[in-house]
Predict the structure.
Amino acid sequence: MRLALKTLTYASMHLLVAVAVAYALTRSWRVALAVGIIEPMVQTVAFNLHERAWSRADKRRAEKDQARVSTEPPSPAASALA
């Protein structure tokens, strides 16, 4: 419940800030409301693409690390412990 309320209040704040900035720049309530409604939608798509790119990068890094670990010879310290 707290997460839902926090999400709702953040979305409301985001809308208010976007409308206020757009109004300050344009002095038009119609444009400000349009920007305030459209901008979060575009931001949501951009965030999704951003997360996918980072997820792919993390996956590539993990694969590279796994390949490096599997091809490295054991360290002398590891051999001494065995």
Q: What stands out?
A: The chain has a mean pLDDT of 87. The radius of gyration is 24 Å. The CA atoms of residues 13 and 41 lie 15 Å apart.
